[in-house]
Amino acid sequence: MSSSDLDPAGGAGNGMERVERKKDFRHMELVDGRMVNVLQGLELHTGVFSPAEQQSIVDCVHDLQDKGRRGLLRERSYSEPRKWMRGKGRATIQCGCCYNYATDRRGNPPGIIRDEEVDPLPPLLKSMVRRLVGWRVLPAACVPDSCIVNIYDVGDCIPPHIDHRDFLRPFCTVSFLAECSILFGRGLKVLGPGEFAGSASISLPVGSVLVLNGNGADVAKHCVPAVPAKRISITFRKMDRAKLPFNFRPDPDLLLHNLAPAAPAPAPVRPAVIATTNSNGSQQQRQGPAGGAAVEGEQMSAAGGGASFVLSSDDFPALGAKATSTRGSRGRR
Fold first, then answer.
1. Which residues contact 128 (CB under 8 A, 6 or more apart)?
2. Neighbours of 112 (CB within 10 A)
3. How far, in whole angstroms, is CA 128 from its chain's centroid?
4. CA distance linking residue 110 with residue 99, whole number of Å
5. pLDDT attached to residue 319
6. pLDDT tens track for 282-323
7. Helices (H), 135-247
8. Which of 282, 270, 296, 30 is nearest to 166 (CA)?
9. How much is the pLDDT for 105?
10. DSSP code of residue 85
11. Which of 260, 310, 317 is nearest to 90 (CA)?
12. Is 205 exposed, middle or buried (0-12, 13-18, 19+ CB in 10 A)?
């Protein structure tokens, strides 16, 4: 298999038959006075990438990381914590757009930084997008045009948040190297560095694809506690047209007519409907933004009365910030 491409059909016999899909996640929580399934919209797909394909993807990520450490990527494509501490984040590679999860030192707010450029998606990651759309993991109406690669060492994490509305729904994250758990809930608690508590936990097998949409993307927060083993995740997202970087040009390889989906495109994402109960006992429904948004922005939170946990811009720079790391080169992961 080429190191720069995946067989869109999955090889002989079309590997779609090995894919298993779970779409019945359920966990009820109180939202605006009404019990709501906060996991509605989540899907877990396994068997999308073969072990050999997973190894090629991991090798590609390691090569990108090596280039980032040597300054061979664009300035804000690669970042890692200035000083490694348990619970202070992970190394990241951004492709397609430069994104801040928190206000950076230049005063840029959370969201896509439209006047910054990062490297485009490399060929192998574009092949992943073609597979995800062609095998109906992601809808043809929402083809990703950006991604963020998270490279975890032991003890690295992602704190509780909701992905920013600069990105459309659904989006997905693909897991490699080691299985881990992702927590969901309205009131995720920060217990300490890299330690979180939530009301719902989902295990992410190696090679699995978790699709986030509806309440699972916009009502429940999610986080990844400190991982027990080295891990890589790749999150693919489509940017809101109104938030595209100023110099962004659509990649011809990712245009819909070049993706050859395996089935007709699903219906466009519709706003989630959240039922609420008025004081007189009558029910009304309200719509969130497209994709089911009920919470704005990406919120790094210690909600629920947990221990104080501060993400310092010195220890953990905003994503895309160029930093000289004291973490050291720990070799290929």
1. 6, 49, 57, 174, 234, 236
2. 23
3. 14
4. 7
5. 39
6. 444 444 444 444 433 343 333 333 333 333 333 333 334 444
7. 214-218
8. 296
9. 83
10. -
11. 317
12. middle
**Region for residue 194 given its phi and psi (left: phi exceeds 0; alpha: psi -120 to 50; beta: otherwise):** left
Of 107 and 234, more confident: 234
3-state secondary structure of 190: strand
| CA–CA distance, 271 with 214 (Å, rounded to integer) | 8
The C-alpha atoms of residue 145 and residue 206 are separated, in whole angstroms, by 24
Strand, helix or coil at 256?
A: helix
pLDDT, tens digit (0-9, with 9 covering 90-100), for 272-286: 444 444 444 444 444
Nearest to 163 by CA among 227, 240, 104, 226: 240
How would you class 107 by CB atoms within 10 Å of its CB: exposed for 0-12, middle for 13-18, buried for 19 or more?
exposed
Residue with tokens 């910054």, as numbered in its chain: 116
Distance CA 239, CA 146 (A): 7
Measured distance CA(89)–CA(194) in Å, rounded? 8
Structure tokens at 32: 């605006």
**pLDDT at position 309:** 30
H-helix or E-strand containing 159? strand 158-161
Strands (E), 180-297: 180-185, 189-192, 195-197, 200-204, 209-212, 221-224, 231-237, 273-277, 283-287
Parallel, antiparallel, or unpaired for β 20-22 and 43-46? antiparallel
Angle between the 51-69 and 123-134 helix axes, to the nearest 10 degrees?
A: 140
Q: How far is 204 from 41, CA to CA, in rounded Å?
A: 16
Q: What's the half-sphere exposure (Cβ side, CA atoms, 13 Å) at 190?
A: 21
Model pLDDT for residues 253-263, shown as the tens digit of each residue: 998 877 754 44
Distance of CA 212 to the CA centre of its chain: 8
Number of C-beta neighbours around residue 93 at 10 A: 26
pLDDT: is 166 or 327 the higher one?
166
Record the tokens describing residue 327, joined without a space.
Answer: 């973490």
Q: Give the residue among 71, 117, 110 at the shortest CA–CA distance from 94.
A: 117
Please give the Cα distance from 225 to 216 (Å, whole number).
18
Can you tell me the distance from the alpha carbon of 172 to that of 7, in angstroms, rounded to the nearest whole number? 20
Report the predicted TM-score, pTM, of the whole model to 2 decimal places: 0.78
